[in-house]
């Protein structure tokens, strides 16, 4: 079992596999990702800065 520090909230968590964020932050990121996907569906061709502004999605 590996313990890592979350790249987002800096809390320690038990790392299994996947991105370097804790399960809670992973869920938040997935929700944000869904918003980005919806935004892009409604605004095809939007640039990433605009998408990031509109959805508060943060690129790591
Ligand atoms: Zn976290």
Bound ions, cofactors and other small molecules, one mention each: zinc ion
Helix coverage percent of residues?
A: 40-55%
Structural class: alpha+beta
Order of the strands making up the biggest sheet: 1-2
Morphology call:
elongated
**DSSP helical segment count:** 2
Low-pLDDT residue spans: none
The averaged pLDDT comes out at 88
Reported for the largest beta sheet, the result is: 2 strands, antiparallel
Please characterize this protein's 3D structure.
Helices cover 47% and strands 13% of the residues. The chain has two helices and two strands. It has helices at residues 23-42, 48-55; strands spanning 2-5, 12-15. The chain has a two-stranded antiparallel ribbon. Strand 1 and strand 2 form a beta hairpin. Helix 1 crosses helix 2 (48-55). The radius of gyration is 14 Å and the shape is elongated. The mean pLDDT is 88. Residues 6, 8-9, 11, 21-22, 24-25 line the site of zinc ion (ZN).
